Amino acid sequence: MKRIYVLFVLTVLVSVSGFQYSESYGQPAVNRDTIILAAHEIINETSYCGLATIDSSGQPHIRTMNPFPVKDDLVIWFATSRTSRKVREINYNPKVCVYFADHLNAKGYVSINGSASVIDDRELLLQMKRDYWNGIPGWQDKFVLIKIIPESIDVINYKHGLNNDPESFQAPNISF
Question: Sign (positive/negative) of CA torsion 89, 91, 96, 102?
Fold first, then answer.
């Protein structure tokens, strides 16, 4: 009887907390809004991120990027040279990954898989202009924008209790 009571109490606590147990490894599934909130915290506290692309031979390339502030929709925007290797790679294969992390302060990471497009829109570029571009002669003709629409996101955020699954090491994730 005592065992049944303990199981009942645990079930009620899990239900009240908003967690649900997933079928794999008995790990709690996390609310989608919590994952998005936790992702925004890591992203907003990170000035730079990694952008991974694939070239025409299938070789991955990653570089450090300075994204524009990320809005609620988690669409990522960058500016880059229109003649950059990343522009060629995105035009060849739009599948990319953007990685934000704060390992120094051990807060966690966000990995966003998505589809990128090169946006050659001078008016939009002027609206998104950064002050330091004034020091780049002819920047209006040199830059294009990269827009990344998220398809899935993995988030580790220790503050929110979002940790890797102890068996699979899979981070909590959602698809868009």
Answer: positive
